[in-house]
Amino acid sequence: MTRWPRIPLGLRLFFLCFILVVITAYMVRKTVIHELKPTVRQTTEETLVDMANLLAVLAEEDVASGRIAESRFAVLLTAYGNREPQAKIWDVGKNTINHRIYITDKNGIVIADSWQKDVGKDYSQWNDVYLTLRGQYGARSTAEDPNDPLSSVMHVAAPIYHNGEIIGSVTVAKSNRSIQPFIDLSKRNVLFWLVWMSVIILVAGALFAWRTHSALNKLENYALKMGQGEKVAKPTFRIFYEYDTLSDALENMRNQLDGKQYVEEYVQTLTHELKSPLSAIKGASEILQMPLPQEKIARFANNIERESDRMQSLIDKLLELARLEKRPQLETLVPISLNDAVDEVVQASDARLSAKAIICNVAVDEGAMVLGDSFLLKQALFNLMDNALDFVYQGGVIEWQATRSKQGVTLSVSNTGPQIPDYAMSRLTERFYSLARENGMKSTGLGLNFVEQVVKLHRGQLEIANQDNGVKVTLFFPSV
Questions:
Q1: Shared domain check, 362 and 290
Q2: Is it the case that residue 270 has pLDDT exceeding 90?
Q3: Are residues 368 and 452 in the same domain?
Q4: pLDDT tens, 66-77?
Q5: Quick one: which of 309, 339, 349, 323 has its CA closest to 443?
Q6: Please, what is the average pLDDT of the chain?
Q7: Beta strand 470-478 with 461-467: parallel, antiparallel or unpaired?
Q8: Which of 161, 388, 409, 431 is deepest in the core (most CB within 10 A)?
Q9: Considering only CA atoms, which of 313, 309, 398, 314 is closest in space to residue 349?
Q10: For the sheet containing 397-404, what is the strand order?
């Protein structure tokens, strides 16, 4: 049988570090450099927007008076286009003004141009002018040479307002070629530091791998000698001190797991709850093995089915509670209409309502909304309806009510029936705690605990109280 070669852990860690560095460097290079150009251009566009709006405010008076061509503003605009900054930005020289500024009237005719080349031309069909004169954001990017991607020019326009009306537009244009040197310089800097950081990380990874391999060898030799009964000093680790406490940590973890009282109590309670239906099923099955009249066979078979359903319900609700306890908060929140939710619950319970001749009154504000999980909230309402149906008197009344206030939404369900004993009031939401129904049977004792968990997830409160002719359960949810 062929065996895999034994590669030391330290070497495997270094290989893993090397692969991760290569993948990370490749993704960073691909992502950052790919996003660099559009990011710089977006930043440039934002600057052009500010500049265009500033010029639109300054040009308002001259455009409104129709004297923009002879105004001092036009003279300054031309002088601006002829300036030579002689600036040096990040080692990139800037000797000419790269912005072009032109102004159009409300018909899209150019009435001023910093380059003095298109005065009098109709620009009304260009997107920057066309959209701006219609109150929209006007911008375009036009290539001067279709074969040269760097020949494209960004144009951003701003409306000129006068007495609340648009009387013209100001466009600021900038060639993408003028910002390309800065993009190239940034790419070189990114690549330079990417290479250096990759080398540093690989050196650190090699050192870490070597130290890990050395520490494991010391522990291995120590364990072998201890196993052979030799007296050997425990190795010490100045950096990887975790190895010193590894055995103690494992022992502590085992003790904590073994002593987990929660698990013991949970299992004991579950065992106790399952014992009763299992005993009933076993007794009924033993009796069914004897000759019996048909009605008794049907009765004991019905007992088996009822107790099986009880165990299935117990298991299903325990699984639901386990899932709820693992959720610290709701992941997605949607607006839920309480009117629709209650209506769905009442319609689903129509058969049981008719069987006991129960009157079900619903008074839910149509605007009552809760922000949360629709499925969980409806499941909680189904549990409340089941409880009410279990305890309501034959021919009694069940009432659903929901009201709104500034603080939130209050939803309540009440039923005519026996009141809750004082000794049981504080234990109603305990897991597995249940009161006997009208027929003497008990439920799984998980329904109200499930409701309480759901309400807490929705940042609400649950209250259970006796009233003159029965019991009332109230849910309060904070405002949406």
A1: no
A2: no
A3: yes
A4: 888 788 887 887
A5: 309
A6: 76
A7: antiparallel
A8: 388
A9: 398
A10: 359-364, 397-404, 408-416, 470-478, 461-467
